[in-house]
Predict the 3D structure of the following.
Amino acid sequence: MARKHSRYDPDAGLQREDETPPVAVACWLCTRPTGKTIVWHHPVPKSRGGRDVVPMHSICQQTLVANFTNSELQRHGMDVEMLLANPNVRKFVDWVAKKDPDFTATITKKQR
């Protein structure tokens, strides 16, 4: 049986005319469209029994990790509104709303 796409096809990575472009999914936290890199984040950490994953920007995931412990993330679960009630997260989401989907920056570490 012949392969659908050859391993050595020089046009394998190019979009064909009859194919539609991939649809950008929205980030779970900031609701902006995701860019080239999508991080599949566990809203409830795996160590706390979380199984569901949601698409996020890496900068949004870093913000959650910097502002919440695993126990707090477990308590909030899939409720984005509770996470956005945190002033640091709300300030971040308002700031990043004007940025490009592929924007990245260094996020401050957890303050312990």
Notes: The longest strand covers residues 39-41. The helical segments are 58-67, 70-76, 80-84, 87-96. The radius of gyration is 18 Å.
